[in-house]
Amino acid sequence: MEADLTLLVNGQQHILRLDPETPLLYVLRNNLGLNGPKFGCGLQQCGACMVLLDHIAWPSCQLPVRQTTGGVAITTLEGLTRPDGTLHPVQAAFVQEQAAQCGFCLNGMIISAVSLLKQYPQPSEEAIRNGLFRVLCRCSVHTRAIRAVQRAAASG
Question: Which ranges carry the 2Fe-2S ferredoxin-type domain (predicted)?
């Protein structure tokens, strides 16, 4: 049964007529055209679908959209870039450290890193490893991703 739902995505309010049980990932990609979050495993285990919910990294592939209404601030990879095109410090650090190969895990890595740095501005290497733990990467860029998070933390 569809209902009018109000979502706050990347600072903009959207009123959409949806089935409240639709996974947030599908709404972001299919209704709002945001392709940063990816469909990976569909089981909330790979991290490709990560978004920020009030600054906390959360997998969106099984999350019913009804749980993200009522003023929850949803931020996708696209929402991190400033309106003038300037990259978020974490995005810039990932570019500088060349911390991507195929790019499929990149959304989850960056979203997780932003969330981590919001909670712990100067994390240890162990904290960074734990913060990125929920994101699977087959290209072996983990050491570069850790360096990117360290770089972003150092840039303030």
Answer: 3-80
